[in-house]
Amino acid sequence: MALKDNIDRNKIPVHVAVIMDGNGRWAKQKGKERVVGHQHGVKAVREVTEAAAELGVKYLTLFAFSTENWQRPTDEVNALMSLLVTTLNAEISTLMENNIKLQTIGDLTIMPGQVRKKLMKTIDQTAANNGMTLILALSYSARWEITNAAREIARNVLDGKLDVDRIDKNLFSEYLQTKNIPDPDILVRTSGEYRISNFLLWQIAYTELYFTKKLWPDIRKQDLYEAIIDYQRRERRFGRINEQSRMNVDR
Ligand code: IPE
Ligand code: IPE
Ligand code: MG
């Protein structure tokens, strides 16, 4: 029996989030420049995106570039930015064939102009697709996102547009980049690092965490299947006791 057949089609996670990590180490192990690892990471992006869309995942969020990644050597940052443009050019057909809508979270205002333009164009081209939504986290960090939300809320209160007593967790979520996107059900991190690195801190409050030692460029469809099978074996209690959580009570 193929691994894929072990997946329960009635329990597919709605939102899968991924910290794609280990490109640099992958390249180093092969005696190559770090950028070669990033280039090979593109195949893993395609595989995981296709596999998720085929399984009926509704949202796939990929952490592609963090706020802190701007501090890497200029050559690496530039290589990542141009790789992003090349990839969007090459993969637009994959997005269309799989009915995938592209979205981004993060501070696009500090992305190079031509990268931002290409992103906007691809978002526009895929806007009518209604299968999976692929969310690229670019120039993103959770602390940036949460601080932004707090600033915007404060501004609205000062402007008299918002009553302080209306601020609760639902309203706060509306000010985040992920507004209208359900919280991730599972968060996958590759490369054997057991940390979150400033990704979706608010949204992962009750997300199931899954770590694999494999480096990102080695990731294939099978690895997503394994993560989902593992996720399906878990019992999510959301603070309740297991008898209650089995009854599917409202969160
Ligand atoms: C992930 O791989 C890609 C980005 C963060 C852009 P890394 O570049 O972090 O690779 P390692 O972790 O150094 O091996
Ligand atoms: C997290 O990976 C960011 C992305 C995958 C884009 P990093 O490689 O930047 O994280 P640290 O530095 O190991 O925590
Ligand atoms: Mg890394």
- By helix and strand content, what is the structural category? alpha/beta
Say which CATH homologous superfamily is assigned.
Decaprenyl diphosphate synthase-like
Number of DSSP E strands: 6
Architecture per CATH nomenclature, i.e. the level-2 architecture: 3-Layer(aba) Sandwich
Predict the CATH topology: Undecaprenyl pyrophosphate synthetase
Strand content: 5-15%
**SS summary, helix count:** 8
Radius of gyration: 19 Å
Uncertain segments: none
> How far do the termini sit from each other?
36 Å
Tally of discrete structural domains: 1
Which CATH top level class fits? Alpha Beta
Ions, cofactors and other bound molecules: 3-methylbut-3-enyl trihydrogen diphosphate, magnesium ion
Strand order of the largest sheet: 3-4-2-1-5-6
Largest sheet entry = 6 strands, parallel
Helix content: 40-55%
Mean pLDDT: 97
Q: Estimate the global geometry from the Cα principal axes.
A: globular
Walkthrough of the structure:
The protein is α/β, with parallel strands linked by helices and 251 residues long. The chain has one domain (3-139, 184-237, 244-248): Undecaprenyl pyrophosphate synthetase (3-Layer(aba) Sandwich). The protein has helices spanning 23-29, 34-55, 74-97, 113-125, 142-158, 169-174, 221-232, 242-246, and strands at residues 15-19, 59-66, 101-105, 133-140, 186-189, 208-211. A six-stranded parallel sheet has the order 3-4-2-1-5-6, with helices on both faces. The structure holds 3-methylbut-3-enyl trihydrogen diphosphate (IPE) (2 copies) and magnesium ion. Residues 20-25, 65, 69, 80, 191, 216 line the site of one 3-methylbut-3-enyl trihydrogen diphosphate.
